[in-house]
Amino acid sequence: MRLLFRFSLLSIVLVSFTFAQTGTRLVDFNAKSLGRGGTSIGIFDSPELMMTNPAGLSFLNNTMIDADFSLMIPELQFTNNLNDAKGETNVFPLPALSFVKKYQQSRWTWGAGFFTAGGMGADFKLKNALYGSELQTYHSMLASLQGGLSVAYGFSDKFSVGISAHLVYSMLEFSMPYALNPSIMQGVANNTGGMTFGQIFAAPPAFHGFGYTEVIASAKMSDLVGIGFNGKIGLAYKINDKLSFGLSYTMPTSLTYKNGKATMDMTAQMNDAFGKAVQGYLMQNPGQTPQQAQAAVMAQFAGMGIDLSKGVQANYDLNLDLKFPQSVGFGTSFSAMDNLKFAVDVEWINWTNAFDKMTLKLSNGTNSNINTMLGNSGSFNLDFPMNWKNAVVVKLGLEYNVDQDLTMRLGYAYGNNPVPQSTIFPVFPAIVENHFMIGGSLRVSAPLTIHAALELGLNNSETSNNPSLIANEYSGSSSQLATTLLHFAATYAF
Question: Does residue 290 sit within a domain?
Fold first, then answer.
């Protein structure tokens, strides 16, 4: 009865709270530390130290295994001059499993595990000016998993050094209308005195151009998988049972996503250009019928080397380069009383040298019209601008032992939004800043403890610059994000 009462109390306290993240990274990786704001660099009590400060593994008391499972539900809103839409509801499962071996008569401790390191995803149905009333799909999914081995060596009862060597596995996909500057169209049009297609598409109508500031293709990128390496090193110093400090460094991770597929469909853009050309021809030749104008324009495109009967849709092989950031963190914990502990973590995340751009490498393009306009044989690179800013994350946590079986936790984390106004767009708005947490642990039996944590990532809104670096449709637009995540874990100590 007493155990049932404690479990009911824990459940009731937790039921109204939710979870979020900083950038594309999770606030932390374990329900135990999430309940106290994600503080884990200076508190040495969980196998997830492999992800935050591997040196702290030396101070674990037992061999243990930890299983973790989370469900993340982002809530998104996008507003521009054509849309005021909520994102579709998605649920992302985030698993983790870790094991630590403690040798009671040795200075060595080792661990192995895999963790969901972070990610992002969104789905919208939105209007785009080029496509009229037909709703377009805007989709993203980024997931990052990592795992491997960690080892710690205790030089004394107070000081330890640790390292983690992890493989990183990541998946990425996008679908949306993709805007490009007309200057990318470097192919020289026949019978135009050396003008490129980009110059023709960008020139104002008065100079026999189309007047476009961007050209748009319906783009779909899928099946992208990247594998890389990540290393971590940590220092842990435990002065006594009341005061401890930790310092950690995480290496940057460079990933090349390979074996992806991409589709580029410029049908809507070419239909719009064709319509403008027909209207221009009729204005210059008022005695012609629309059918005659269409035939004349088709002949003009054919003279430039474009066979409209072949369409303007191409399939490509796709590789993509992206880097995940390095970070430096410091943490400390202090026990004010035997049953009350405070903790603080401060972490610097170097987004500037990581999410500056995504480089898309397309090859084996199958459509001769698109190849002619781009001036290549079906292979080219695109740099997608991101320009993220560095972030500082501050985490505050409190842990209270109700008795020997029940522990309650509170926490708060703040991480400044790394996404600049120049590159914010609706399917990648990783802009949440403020996080409130609550959690707890219940010892079910001597070896088994269950943990739960929930966190509220407060809704944050950001307005894009005008003009946007991504596309005209995002200029002056507003993107909002709040995130909900429910996290449970079980720890078994041997």
Answer: no
Phi, psi of 60 (to 5 degrees): -70, 145
Contacts for 202 with CB less than 8 Å, ≥ 6 apart = 182, 183, 209, 210, 211, 212, 213
Residue 427 in any domain: the answer is yes
Spatial separation of the C-alpha atoms in residues 335 and 339, rounded to whole Å? 8
> Is there a domain that residue 291 lies in?
no
**Residue 21 — pLDDT band, cuts 50, 70, 90?**
low
Q: Which of 362, 319, 355, 163 is nearest to 227 (CA)?
A: 319
Domain boundaries, position 434: 2-266+312-493
How do residues 184-194 score in pLDDT, each as one tens digit?
Answer: 999 999 877 78
What's the one-letter identity of residue 94?
Answer: L
- Within 111-189, residue ranges assigned H as helices are none
Residue 284, domain member (yes or no): no
Rounded CA separation 413/189 (Å):
56
- Residue 298 CA to residue 185 CA, distance in Å, equals 19
The domain total for the chain is 1
Q: Is the peptide bond before 93 cis (omega within 30 degrees of 0)?
A: no
Distinct helix (H) and strand (E) counts, the chain: 7, 21
Burial label for 5, CB within 10 Å (0-12, 13-18, 19+), is exposed
CA 192 vs. chain centroid, Å, equals 44
pLDDT in tens, 280-290: 999 989 889 99
Residues written for the chain: 494
Number of other CB atoms surrounding residue 238 within 10 Å? 22
Report the alpha-carbon distance of residue 487 to residue 440 in Å, rounded: 11
Strands (E), 239-291: 243-250, 253-265
CATH code for the domain of 316: 2.40.160.60
